[in-house]
Amino acid sequence: MLDLRTAAGRLARVPLRAVAPGGSPVTRALIVGCCLVFALGPLSGLRPPHGGADAVLAAQTGYFERWGVIPEELWSGSGRALLTPLTALFVHGSWLHLLGNMLFLHVFGAMTEERMGRTGFLLFYLGCGSLALVAYAAAHAASDQTLVGASGAISAVLGAFLYLFPRARVTSLLPFLFFVPLRFPAWIVLVFWFVLQWLAVRDAGGSGPGVAHLAHVAGFVLGFLYAWGRRRWADRVKTPAAATEGENQP
């Protein structure tokens, strides 16, 4: 499963704030949507299924299999499975999984949305998040383990944020310094995060199930490249300013 709380723990820091965000309705809607989906699902404990432990486990398993990505099914060509890279972005495995992901989205999503625009940010989030899950599924095509969570999409947000706001200040708590809040430039925090994800991918050696660090890496790279390409494209299509009257006249 995708889980940014593990990544946060490996970093020994919890990001709290970049700068005060302005209007970010898409970011807020995504957070609310993920929370509602989790609250209405069988893992929240708010609506427990009838029956004993076996019934609860069966409900949870069926929930993951219906809405999560199962790599071997994704590549089988099933029409239903082809939609799961999108639906899995709104499914989480526990309260901690959900809250960890939403914290990262809250910290880095608002400013990224303001720069990209509402529609652009929504399409970017859903597209890169889905592609990150597909990338992980491609690397573990024979796996029957279910992938869920928004970490791939949020990793893409982190990658875009690094390109767009490298000097923004991020307030963090450092457990090994007794949770003293310190502020760092975003490029230090995010590059450090990416390096740890990459090292985790190498340590895993393609073993598959667990925290999908490869989806984190794929999402981050996709987000960074998207922001870079979008900026380059915008620079190319800019129209030169029209000459004022009498200027450059024969």
List the keywords.
globular; Rhomboid-like fold; 250 residues; mainly alpha
Walk me through the structure:
With 250 residues, the chain is mainly alpha-helical. It has one domain: Up-down Bundle (Rhomboid-like fold). 61% of the residues lie in helices and 6% in strands. It has helices at 4-11, 25-40, 53-67, 71-74, 79-82, 84-87, 95-116, 118-139, 151-164, 186-204, 213-237, and strands at 14-17, 169-174, 180-185. It has a 3-stranded antiparallel β-sheet with strand order 1-2-3. α2 runs antiparallel to α7, α9 (151-164) packs across α10 and α10 crosses α11. The longest helix has 25 residues, at 213-237. It starts with a helix and ends in a 13-residue tail after the last helix.
What's the number of structural domains? 1
CATH superfamily, called what? Rhomboid-like
**How many DSSP H or I helices?**
11
Provide the residue-averaged pLDDT.
79
Helical coverage, percent range: 55-70%
Arrangement of strands in the largest sheet: 1-2-3
Task: Write the SSE topology.
Blueprint: H1 4-11, E1 14-17, H2 25-40, H3 53-67, H4 71-74, H5 79-82, H6 84-87, H7 95-116, H8 118-139, H9 151-164, E2 169-174, E3 180-185, H10 186-204, H11 213-237
Antiparallel strand pairs: 1-2, 2-3
